[in-house]
Amino acid sequence: MQKKYVITVFIFLFMLSFFISLCNGVVKISIKGIVKAILSHEDSINRQVIWNVRLPRTIVAGLVGICLSLSGAILQGVMRNPLAGPNIIGVSAGGGLAVLILLILFPDFYYLVPMGAFVGSLLATLFIYILAWKDGVLPTRLILAGVAVSSLLNAGINALMTFYPDRVAGVISFMVGGLSSTTWVQVKMILPYTLVGVLLVLLLPTKLNILMLGDEIATGLGLNVERTRFIFIILSSLLAGAAISAVGLLGFVGLIVPHIARLFIGSDYRILFPGSIFLGGTIVMLCDTVARVLLAPMEIPVGIIMSALGAPFFLFLLRRKERV
C-alpha cells in the first residue's frame, strides 16, 4: 500500500513540474494566465508563448524523461548491473551517430531522424550483443562490450565533426542535449514511438522480474532467457532512439532515475516501471526549467544541468558498489 502512495506522489510531482515548466522562463506566466492562454482564442503574447514555445517544449521534455528512464531501467534489469544506462553502454552513441549522419551528410532527410535514431541504437545494441555472446550472454561481458562499442561510436561522431566543421554549428545543441528549438514537430516525432514503447514495456514487467533472478532460475521457471533479454534490448533501443531524435545526447537520465525510484519503491518492475515513467518526466522537465531560468535571458542546454547532477550520482554509485 505504501508503494501506491509513493506512485501517487510521483504523479503529483509530474503534474506540478509540468505547470512549473509552463510558468517559468524569460516571461513569467501565472497559472491563471496559462489556463486563459490555453482555453482562450484571444491572440495574446501569453498565448503565443504557451502554445508555440513552452507547451511543446514541456511535453517533449516529459516524453524524453519517460523514454530514457524506462530504457535505463530495462538495461539495468537485463544486465543486472546498476551502472548500466543508454549513454554508458553505447546505445545512445549508436543513435547519436545515425542522427548526425542524417543531419550532417543528408540534411534533406531530416524527417527520418526518429527512425534513424532507433535503427542506430538497435544496430549498436545488436553489435554489443554479438560481441558479448559466448555460449550465452553474461551481463558483465555485455557491459564491457558496451563500453568498448561506445568508445568506437563516439570516435565516429568526433570524426564527423572534424571532417565537416562548417556544418557542426547546427548540431552543437544535439551533442550536449538541448530543448531550445523544440516545436510541435518534435512532439509529433517522439510521441508515437514513446506510446508504443511504454505500452509494450508495461505489458512485460513480470518477465523482467524473473530474468533478474538469474539465468538458471529463470530457465527453470520456463522463461526463454535469451529471447526475453533480446526483446527487452530492442525495447530499450526503441525508447532511447525516440529520446535521442528529439533532444540529442542527453546523458545520465537513464542511469539516475531508476535508482532514485528504487530507493522509494524497491526493485519490483511492476511498480518500478510506472515510478520511473513519472519520476523521469519530472526530473527532465524540472532540469529544463532550471536551464531556462538560471541565467535568463541566456539559456543553458538541459544536458549540462543533467550532467552536473548525474556525474556526482554516478560516482556515488561506484563507491556504493565497491562497499557492497
From TrEMBL:
Keywords: Cell membrane, Membrane, Transmembrane, Transmembrane helix, Transport. The chain crosses the membrane at residues 55-75, 87-106, 112-130, 142-161, 190-210, 230-257, 269-294, 300-318. GO terms for cellular component: plasma membrane. It is found in: Cell membrane. InterPro entries: ABC_BtuC-like, ABC_transptr_permease_BtuC. It is a multi-pass membrane protein. Coiled coil: none annotated. GO terms for biological process: siderophore-iron import into cell. It holds the Pfam family FecCD. Gene3D superfamilies: ABC transporter involved in vitamin B12 uptake, BtuC. GO terms for molecular function: transmembrane transporter activity. It comes from the Bacteria. Belongs to the binding-protein-dependent transport system permease family. FecCD subfamily. This is Iron complex transport system permease protein.
